[in-house]
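In the current project phase, work has continued on tokenised descriptions of protein folds. One protein thus recorded appears below exactly as we store it.

——
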Amino acid sequence: MWVEGEVGSGRGHVALVLHHLADPSAPFHVSDLARDTDWPTSGTVVLPNVDTLPPDLQQALIRRLANRPVDVRLVTTSSPNARSRVTEGLLDPKLYYDLAVIVVDVPPLRNRPDDIVPMMIGALGEFARRYKRPMPLLTPDIETRLRAHAWPGNVRELFNLAERAVVLGADALRLDPIRTASAGIPNLEPGFSLADWLDRMERRILAEALRRTDGDRNAAGRLLNVERNTLRYKLLKHKLIDK
């Protein structure tokens, strides 16, 4: 099982739910892929952030998977669209296709506005019980601000905010109005480089075009409406081809 989504979107929670659906009494182990030498012989093993592993750890994991215990259930987590990293040469295809038999996409919280208020109410109740404090009430104005917030930290940010509100009071829930860019546009914050951002986007688009056309450069050029020599120059520039 391959679970992908943004950081803080709830990938680990999905892994835990899958474990409980299968056998909650069995071991549940989140592997440290740089240090672990042994996995349990049964239950669920979570392999976190596999798409960001350096090549040597990817190869080590491939060797390890060849001898994995038959009773171990593997759940892998990664950032969104990990398959594109295979096309870009950053993720070993053998590793990806061995683990990504079923891919579960966990959408970011900003794309689930109807979930925000119920999740906040549940989180406030959980922390109120933990700290034995009154549960803050959500006014219509606060609910509107919660739905409008961009949630760059996703579910993790929501739970942190709920905990702070229980400890400090409901005023902690009065979020500033949304200040993020429109969908598809980066946040223009100190340190932003337009040149670097455009360069990264160009590489991703080129890699996706090659993926969709199974590596056929002529077809990729037609798809992108780019002249052949220009396409070759860009592919070489981004090291997507050797020659």
Q: What stands out?
A: The first helix runs from residue 11 to 22. The chain has ten helices and five strands. Residues 177-181 have pLDDT under 50 and may be disordered. The first strand starts at residue 2 and ends at 5.
